[in-house]
Amino acid sequence: MAYCYDGKTYETIKEMAEEYGIDRERIYSFRHRGWSLEEAMRMCIDDVRGRGRLFEYNGKLYRSPKALAEEYGLPWNSLSHYMQRCKTVEEAVKSCKEAQEKKITLWGKQYQSRYEVAEAFGIRETSITFRSYTRKATLEEIVLELLQKEPIYFEGNTYNTLTELCAKYQVQPCNVFECLKYGKTLEEAVYLPIRNNGKRYEVEYEGKVYQNAAFLCREYHISKSLVKGQQRYKPEYSFIKCFQMIKQLRDECKWPDTEVFAFIPRLKVQGTFYKSLADFAAVIGMTRGQIDAYKSRHHYKNMIEALQAMQRDRIPAYKTEYGLLSYSEARKRRYTYAQIEKLEYIPENG
């Protein structure tokens, strides 16, 4: 069987692939999926990668809206939205570009789109869009809420909360929030130092005078919000008195100097501090309810005794494609009784 492409005839697909320096297996793959020879050759010659529906714009092929959006600097989810509602790709790209020209104002600063806002603050654009349509809140309120509740992407790393990000860079979360409200980006709020605006609220501690309470807390790597929180419970105590209490607790915990003391830890296991029992339970793959139930069932006085006993106890586990699971976890994964019996049983040291 002869194959004709671009006015030339080839005896085999292998010969045609060698002529153009492409992989013949890709041609076979496209042909088996119902593509014509011309379309398959064009896909291989242009080296169009990806899966899904094929798009053509300005004479170039794309296998996804995301690839097209990245080349023209458009938010890919918005472009996908317009592609589903417009008749042609050209119309969708035009509508998406027009939508980007309508600037968004956030804290006195203009952004081209929600996507640009998300990039500036390290949050997800889909979360901003979802809350914009489901809640009666301003864009400022939505961004502040996402910074406190959702993971933040900053300089190649992901942080669970803004407090964790501030602890990494040894800055106060309250200072970062104030900088954001004055129109700073997340990067500017983290890196820019506190400037003296002419109002001095000097405090003295151990014979040294500080410009304000924030400077005092920054020098000792203690969160100002944590000290203020203790002061709410003891209004008769001064800020310095509460600061001394927090510093004493920090020294007793032997908190590392490289981290900001931003919460009162409940327990320390193998050199790592945990804010609550739930945080520790999540790290070891359990829930707080499981630890509480074990403590109540065996009538232990406190959590430490319960954890020590659980460490010595023989807890069976089953080896699955999800890793080691207890019997209850295997049932949650919708394993049947017969399937659990067939899973590999792991003894105590497994």
Shape: flat
- Lateral strand order in the biggest sheet: 14-13-15
Beta percentage is: 5-15%
Protein structure class: alpha+beta
Per DSSP E runs of 2 or more residues, the count of β-strands stands at 15
Largest sheet: 3 strands, antiparallel
* Percent in helix: 40-55%
Q: Which spans of ≥5 residues are poorly predicted at pLDDT below 50?
A: none
Radius of gyration: 30 Å
Total of DSSP H or I helical runs spanning 4+ residues: 20
- Rounded average pLDDT: 77
End-to-end distance: 61 Å
Topology:
Blueprint: E1 3-5, E2 8-10, H1 13-20, H2 24-32, H3 37-45, E3 55-57, E4 60-62, H4 65-72, H5 76-85, H6 89-101, E5 104-106, E6 109-111, H7 114-121, H8 125-134, H9 139-149, E7 152-154, E8 157-159, H10 162-169, H11 173-181, H12 186-191, E9 203-205, E10 208-210, H13 213-219, H14 224-233, H15 239-253, E11 267-269, E12 272-274, H16 277-283, H17 288-297, H18 303-312, E13 317-320, E14 323-325, H19 327-332, H20 337-342, E15 344-346
Antiparallel strand pairs: 1-2, 3-4, 5-6, 7-8, 9-10, 11-12, 13-14, 13-15
Helix pairs in contact: 2-3, 4-5, 5-6, 8-9, 14-15, 17-18
